[in-house]
Design brief:
Blueprint: E1 5-10, E2 22-30, E3 33-43, H1 45-53, H2 59-80, H3 87-95, H4 104-118, H5 122-138, H6 151-164, H7 167-186, H8 212-220, H9 226-241, H10 245-249, E4 257-258, E5 264-269, E6 276-280, H11 283-291, H12 301-315, H13 323-336, H14 341-347, H15 360-377
Antiparallel strand pairs: 1-2, 2-3, 4-5, 5-6
Length: 378
């Protein structure tokens, strides 16, 4: 298909900054599609118009002619290499300083910028950062050309991940790196898929939890010092409320509310998924909250998990205690209290409960009425 390329330059007053300058924009029309691309130069719009309208040669005209000639030369180069030429390719070419060389670091920066624009969380961003850091440290350096990336590098990266991480974690990390590669293919910086023939097998982690006897063993165990006593209370609070560590760490006294049933509850959005959850506290959890005047003695996640291992040894529990195990245990605890599984899912703020975001007020009423009915029976 023949590419019909047309280029026009603008400097619009509606985009003027505080200094009175606006970016020079390149309007690219190709095969019925028209897009604007910001150039790395800013000018006063009035001056831009005068320079362009002038019959004499000036710096602005020379710059615009240079941009146009470089893009046309790039178009010819892509055609000679039998590569596609689209507006996205032009945009990346301009963004890369009119340079046809493209490094792995530049690919990562472009992907990350696009990733942030779509909306994500710092936690999710960090997961991608860890993946690319592992790749740069062990497979290819940041200054390596994208064109150097081959199927062998992907195989080597997969072997490295499997040697250093659990299977499920390795699969998730490799899947994230594939997202970066697919982005590179979408902007036509990567010609052939280096993942071809590689199947990422994602495994489901077995959900671990404590049974009632193990929870009682922790509850009844007298800790040898105040440090472990506080950690014990924090862990039990998770077991009774289904709160994750980051949600528990963010609690303040005002988060503990009381409804017309007389129930104390917590209603917030989960830090991880932003999904609304509503946790009603049973007496087990209320007792712990009151012990600390509704200001839980939260410590760092790393120290918390380290102290939990000490508690497991003291209580004779052969399972690895960690912050998320308390959340898993809470699901069983709430089900054993007689709550319907749908209500428990909503209390835990699971993202697969699609109606949670849209019917938050119904969620709260459902949880409250279910627990009120349960309490009336007892």
């Amino acid at each position: 298909m023949r590419n019909t390329l047309d280029m026009t330059f603008y400097c619009r007053k509606c985009k003027v900054n505080r200094k009175g300058l606006a970016p020079i924009e390149l309007a690219v029309s190709m095969n019925g599609e028209r897009r604007f691309i910001n150039l790395p130069v800013k000018m006063a719009p009035d001056r831009f118009e005068k320079q362009v309208a002038s019959k004499t040669t000036n710096d602005t005209k020379k710059y615009l002619e240079s941009v146009e000639s470089q893009i046309k030369a790039f178009q010819i180069q892509r055609a000679s290499e039998n590569k596609g030429f689209t507006i996205d390719v032009i945009r990346e070419y301009v963004k890369n300083g009119f340079n046809t060389n493209y490094t792995m670091l530049e690919l990562w920066e472009s992907f990350f910028s696009n990733f942030q624009k779509k909306g994500t969380t710092p936690r999710n961003e960090r997961k991608y950062e860890l993946v690319i850091e592992a790749f740069f440290s062990n497979i290819l350096p940041p200054n390596a050309q994208v064109s150097e990336l081959t199927h062998l590098h992907i195989v080597q990266f997969e072997r490295y991940l499997k040697a250093h991480f659990a299977d499920s974690t390795a699969a998730n990390m490799l899947s994230k790196f594939r997202s970066i590669v697919l982005f590179g293919m979408s902007i036509e910086r990567i010609a052939e898929d280096p993942f071809k023939g590689i199947h990422i097998k994602k495994t489901t982690k077995e959900v671990a939890f404590l049974n009632a006897h193990e929870v009682d063993a922790i509850r009844k165990k007298q800790m040898p010092n105040e440090r472990l006593e506080r950690v014990k209370d924090l862990f039990l609070f998770q077991c009774f409320t289904a709160l994750s560590y980051c949600d528990m760490a963010a609690l303040v006294p005002d988060d503990f509310q009381q409804n017309h049933f007389g129930q104390i509850y917590i209603e917030k959005h989960r830090a991880k998924t932003k999904v609304l959850f509503c946790t009603v506290l049973f007496e087990d959890a209320i007792e712990i909250a009151r012990k600390y005047n509704f200001r839980l003695p939260v410590i760092s996640n790393q120290r918390y998990n380290g102290y939990l291992k000490e508690i497991a040894d003291l209580c004779g529990i052969d399972k690895t205690l960690h912050t998320h195990l308390g959340r898993h245990t809470a699901g069983c605890y709430l089900l054993n209290k007689g709550l319907p599984i749908e209500v428990v899912a909503k209390i835990m703020g699971h993202t697969n409960t699609r109606m949670t975001r849209h019917y938050a007020h119904l969620l709260r009423d459902t949880v409250f009425s279910s627990i009120a009915a349960l309490e009336n029976k007892t």
